[in-house]
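Review form for a predicted model. The reviewer records the input and the model, then writes brief findings.
Reviewer: anonymous (R2)
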Amino acid sequence: MSHSLREWLAFLEGKGKLKRVRKEVDPVFEIAALGKQADGICSLLFERVKGYAVPVVTGLAGDRELFAAAMSVPVEGMLEKLAAAVENPVPCRLVSPDGAPVKECIIRENIDLLKMLPIPTHHAGDAGPYITAAILIARDPDSGVRNVSIHRLQVTGPDRLGILILPRHLWHFFGKAERAGRPLEIALAIGVHPAVLLASQATTRLGVDELEIASALLPQPLELVKCETVDVEVPAGAEIVIEGKILPGVREVEGPFGEYPRYYGPAAPRPVVEVTAVTHRRQPVYHTIIPASREHLLLGGIAREAVLLQTVRQAVPTVKNVHLTPGGSCRYHAVISIEKKHEGEAKNAIFAAFTSSSEVKHVVVVDHEINIFDPEEVEWAVATRCQAGRDVFIVKDAMGNRLDPSSRDGVSDKMGIDATIPLNLPGERFERISIPGLDKIKLADYLE
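Model under review:
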């Protein structure tokens, strides 16, 4: 099965980016602690997890270069390829169960998730073990169109999961099913290629199938196979699939859980998934995403950047690049570079950024020669090209993100900063100092 998790792990190992942990580790906190220490440095494959025969992997893509490699493009072309995939999805290919590795083992009875799978507990305040890297696949009850997303899933019983569903496409599907008094059939695929994970985070209009976006990101169409107990298709090369139903009219307490802003999402009554079957490869590998890790932040951030770039480009055609910063949890802080031709373009870019996602909270616009991936460069532009009374503005009481603890139940103020050089000022005032030959001289050549 090409373009599977296993193929990706082989690629990482060949690049020296995968390290194997052969010492026994505890799924409670120890996996998360070690994964956090390796964050952005390498992926970890835990071969011996206490109480389990199933290994655990984390940190599949801890930097932008790896996500670009997963899409077979250079970093500079990553956002363009993702945007093109959203606009031009490619149909998937349905295969028979006989040709699907995820069907090698099928369990329909006596399901106990915590006995079967090494599901970690990540943070001190978490309510318990959480599935964090499963793509959830569901169908619109009316149109039948698939939707793919990632949700936090608390294991609350042998075959029971609590789920946080934000007011997006899955919530819309579940609302339709619940109003009709029916459960919503879903499947959770764990252990897929990073391009499939990335596609699940694409911001699209209702009715676009994210699995077809994944097909467009890969060299060949994504292979799917039908589930055993629900009317859903899943990646045939996934390591593990959990089939189930979100129950209508049922709410149970889920949470707290350590989220991407590095705070705990609070406990509350939330929908419940009842598991109906589990299928998996022989000797499967379990994938966990450590919350607030580079893998977690970039997974959501890169997909949002693709939308941000396209949205800003409509307002300011000379936009050069966009970046959702790690310090802003790859959600809240955007930096945009433009080649300014007219005064006011920076502010137009800021307004466009706010419309690209309700999560965007603070936006800085800089000139095109500023490296927007270097926080020191961006801060320097703000320090030397911005006057607060002229270049900073605030929009009060806009829709934000409920996971931002400073928001008022999701209502948030927004701030824009124009850190571009005013066009009416003499250029020599902003000429950067430079040392001729700096990029060619090597200090090591002068040291004994």
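Findings: The longest helix spans residues 294-315.
Further findings: The mean pLDDT is 95.
Recommendation: see findings above.
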